[in-house]
Each structure stands twice: as structure tokens, then as C-alpha cells.
Design a protein that fits this description.
single chain, alpha/beta, Rossmann fold
Length: 256
């Protein structure tokens, strides 16, 4: 895939920040060790993480040069690392691994999540938020429209996030796990030519699809996707769109 479009991603900064802040509020007292912002993106959570957990080194990890270029302007980070979250390994056991809307991009969660817990210091905490949106029209229509326009090009999408019960069972042997879901009813601002939901998904879930298209194909795809979204998410009288977005949260504290 091409690198992230950090400007497009940041257009909905407030909507993306609220789940991260809700997750952060559930992180508690920590042992010694650094705080790791795994999949830190543009660094929007750097200052909040530093304020909630003062006295801990703050390390940001992301594999996107474009995102890290913006994160470097955030003074809260002590270190920023360009690394893949799936293979990153800390020099010192972290007190907290905090991951906001990043781990859904990685496969093999039955291996990944126990591995992340194993990296923690004893008494350290893993805190994760992931979208549970892949079966909603905003995401399902991306695949359906792409397959309709370009038959045979795209495989059936994998389900990036399992059922909450799966993670509860997976994490139970490692410590005290807490899981919950929230559906945010986001009011997306009106747009002149594009559907507001398309602007939201274009910088995230849509990227693997449009990366496989040339410019002409992408333009054709976006027109068709916009048209499908009008039915699924009709605009309000002022042009804004109400966009339900479901997210899964989990925290686990390593007990051994």
C-alpha cells in the first residue's frame, strides 16, 4: 500500500480522538517502565499520555513515515520509532502498551495479543481500542462496490477484529481483563462533492482497495461508493451525516 495520507486522516481528528481518550481514562497506576504508544500515528495522544502517566518515558511506534513526520512536532514523546507493531520489541519491559485503532491492521490476534502482554513489566497494562465496523455499510460497501466494478481483483475481506468474547477468553490466563463496546453516533460535517462517510473511510479502511487501482479506476470507484452511501447514510437537512461507529475496548493487567 501507499503511505498514509496524514492530512486526510487528521480531518476527523475530534471523532478519532474521543475513543482514544475514553480508553486512556481506563488506564490506572503503573509499575516502572516506559509508556508505549503503539501505532502512534500523528502523535495526537502524546500529550494526553504524558499528562496521565507522568514520570514515564513515552515512546511512539509507527510504520508510517508520513505519520511520524507529524508526530515529531509533539514534544511529549521521548522517542519515536519507525517500526512494524507486529515485530517491534522493547528494550525495557513497558509499564503500558497503549494502542488506539491500530491493531485491527495486524493479523493473527490469537498470537499477537498474548505476545504483547508478555512484553509488559509485571503489573503492566495493555490498553487497546479497535473499530468493530467491518460489517457496517460504511466498510462493507467498499468491498461490494470494488468487487462489482473490478470482478476477480479483490479477495473476500478478512474480519480484522474478532468477537469480544474471543478476546476475553484469549486474555483471561494472563491477568485481569476488562472489555466493553461503545457505538459513537458521530455527526460528520457536510461536504461539497464527496459523501462525508467516504471522507472518513478514505484514509483508513479504503486504502488497500484504492491502492490496487489506477487514478481512473479510483475516480470511478469513488463515484459509485458515494452513490451507495447516500442510501445507507442519508444527509440531514444541513448536509451533515449521522454516522454510527462501533468500537471495541479492552484492557488487561499482566499478573505474572
Amino acid at each position: 500500500m501507499t503511505d498514509w495520507n496524514s492530512d486526510l486522516y487528521s480531518r476527523f481528528a475530534a471523532a478519532r480522538l474521543r475513543p482514544a481518550m475514553d480508553l486512556l481514562s481506563q488506564t490506572g497506576q503503573l509499575p516502572d517502565g516506559p509508556v508505549v504508544d503503539l501505532g502512534c500515528g500523528t502523535g495526537v495522544m502524546g500529550e494526553a499520555l504524558a499528562a496521565r502517566h507522568p514520570g514515564h518515558r513515552l515512546i511512539g511506534v509507527d510504520n508510517s513515515p508520513a505519520m511520524l513526520a507529524k508526530a515529531r512536532s509533539v514534544p511529549a514523546y521521548d522517542t519515536l520509532l519507525e517500526e512494524d507493531a507486529a515485530t517491534w520489541a522493547p528494550d525495557v519491559p513497558p509499564a503500558l502498551i497503549f494502542s488506539n485503532a491500530a491493531l485491527q491492521w495486524l493479523p493473527d490476534h490469537p498470537t499477537l495479543f498474548p505476545h504483547l502482554v508478555s512484553l509488559l513489566a509485571r503489573g503492566g497494562q495493555l490498553a487497546v481500542q479497535m473499530p468493530l465496523q467491518h460489517n457496517s455499510p460504511s466498510h462493507r460497501l467498499i468491498h461490494d462496490v470494488a468487487v462489482d466494478l473490478f470482478p476477480g481483483r479483490f479477495d473476500a475481506p478478512r474480519e480484522p477484529v474478532a468477537a469480544p468474547e474471543t478476546y476475553a477468553r484469549l486474555l483471561a490466563p494472563f491477568g485481569d481483563a476488562d472489555l466493553w463496546e461503545t457505538t459513537y453516533i458521530q455527526r460528520l460535517p457536510a461536504a461539497v462533492e464527496e459523501h462525508p462517510v467516504r471522507l472518513f473511510t478514505q484514509s483508513t479502511f479504503m486504502r488497500p482497495y484504492t491502492s490496487a487501482m489506477d487514478a481512473t479506476e479510483e475516480a470511478r470507484f469513488l463515484v459509485a461508493y458515494d452513490a451507495a452511501l447516500v442510501t445507507a447514510y442519508p444527509p440531514e437537512a444541513d448536509g451533515t451525516v449521522l454516522f454510527p461507529f462501533r468500537r471495541l475496548f479492552l484492557t488487561v493487567r499482566r499478573n505474572s
